[in-house]
Write a structure and sequence with these properties.
3 domains, binds magnesium ion, alpha+beta, Alpha-Beta Plaits, 411 residues, DNA polymerase, domain 1, Dna Ligase, domain 1, 5-stranded mixed β-sheet
């Protein structure tokens, strides 16, 4: 029986922050460029770099003086997040000309499901190349595209060749192309899981795909089962519709602190700083969320990630803060120092859809009143006009770091 496979593209802008800076200011184009935090502070690390800077060995996470040692002519520019948002939107608009199923992942990546619409535009490879060329010509940045029959393999494909390239992982070749790769090549296998898999003699994606599914289920629960399915090309997620804000999107925030976070008190400061802003954005969009993902970047630059879904969706700052802190309590040993924290809330749905439930929860009204009052003040006087006291820590945080989503880590 012939099954009809989906056609999914994953498009990833190369060196997004640095590419936007170069597109905006073409005189930078032939120079080694890094987008960096503030020079005088520890926050002065490389957030993104262009290929020329990369060729000198400049890495995301380098402190500015280290980067300058590797590349003395390095041009350092400060980040412009509002501009990156605009570029991101313009790029998505182009994708949306080819399908209504465009699901963003971070600021610079999208999945496109073109199964039903490809016939109007060409073969999948032709469409990928059209997108690649159009975005280069019209926006001035380059993308890498992966083409496959699942989201997992499409994303893997976009990582295989870059910049400005297309990689196809067709059903007939996926085992040959994917299975020799190391475990860390796909999202979902973190630093914690990898050694545990190694103990079971699992070293490549193929080892994992061919491992007994029940064993994985026993050892790692749903995650093990899901990974096994994904690597066998089944049960992969759908690409969400572009206008399906409820399901597709998440609202997140991340920051690199000025000094490493050493204890829970400092962690609470950072987490409140992030959660307060996330909650404000959720309320602005009139949505609530229930799935939390926390990523902590240790001072050796590796990440630890954990997610959790709560029963009652929320957009209240303190609920979000408490959930995040509980998760961090479980995932962080407090011995390792933490350099960056990212938090995102997903599984979003319209606020009104849960209003009926909250009617019975009178205890929430006080918190809601407080949120509303704060939102009003911010609407009038700007976001920074009112902040939780706990976040007033100038040693640790820098208001410039707000919404510093460094999605551009793509070595
Ligand atoms: Mg990218």
């Amino acid at each position: 029986m012939q099954t009809k496979h989906k056609i999914i593209l994953h498009c990833d802008v190369n060196n997004f922050f640095a590419s936007c800076e170069c597109a905006l200011n073409p005189s930078l184009k032939d120079l080694p460029v890094a987008v960096t935090g503030e020079k005088s502070k520890r926050n002065g690390i490389v957030l993104a770099k262009n290929n020329l800077a990369k060729s000198f060995g400049v890495k995301t996470g380098d402190i500015i003086y280290q980067a300058k040692q590797k590349c003395p002519d390095l041009v350092c520019v400060r980040p412009h997040h509002d501009i990156y948002e605009k570029y991101s939107k313009r790029i998505r608009k182009i994708y949306e000309e080819y399908t209504d199923k465009v699901e963003p992942f971070g600021i610079d990546e999208c999945w496109l499901d073109i199964t039903d619409t490809a016939k109007f535009f060409g073969t999948p490879l032709e469409i990928a190349n059209i997108l690649r060329k159009r975005i280069k010509e019209e926006i001035g940045v380059t993308i890498s595209v992966g083409i496959s029959f699942t989201k997992t393999f499409a994303k893997l494909g976009s990582d295989m060749k870059k910049p400005d390239a297309v990689t196809e992982i067709p059903f007939s070749k996926y085992k040959n192309m994917v299975y020799p790769l190391p475990l860390g090549s796909i999202i979902g296998i973190g630093r914690k899981l990898e050694p545990k898999l190694n103990k079971l003699n699992i070293f490549t994606l193929g080892d994992l795909a061919n491992c007994d599914k029940n064993l994985l289920k026993t050892k790692f629960g749903v995650i093990g089962e899901q990974l096994h399915d994904k690597l066998n090309g089944i049960n992969d997620d759908e690409v969400a519709f572009a206008n399906d804000s409820a399901q597709a999107k998440s609202i997140g925030n991340g920051t690199t602190t000025l000094v490493d976070v050493k204890n829970m008190q400092e962690m609470k400061t950072v987490v409140m700083f992030l959660c307060d802003e996330i909650a404000t954005r959720l309320r602005k969009k009139c949505v609530v969320g229930s799935t939390f993902q926390i990523s902590l970047r240790k001072n050796d630059l590796t990440w630890i990630t954990k997610s959790h879904t709560i029963e009652n969706s929320t957009n209240n700052s303190f609920d979000i803060f408490n959930t995040a802190i509980n998760l961090i309590e479980k995932m962080w040993d407090k011995k390792t120092q933490i350099r960056s924290v990212r938090i995102s809330v997903s599984n979003l749905c319209n606020e009104n859809s849960i209003n009926q439930l909250t009617l019975f929860e009178q205890k929430n009204t006080q918190k809601e009143k407080l949120d509303k009052a704060i939102d009003k003040i911010r609407d009038k006087y700007g976001y920074m006009s009112i902040k939780p006291l706990i976040t007033q820590n100038k040693e640790l945080l820098n208001s410039d770091a707000l919404r510093l989503d460094d999605t551009d880590i793509d070595e």
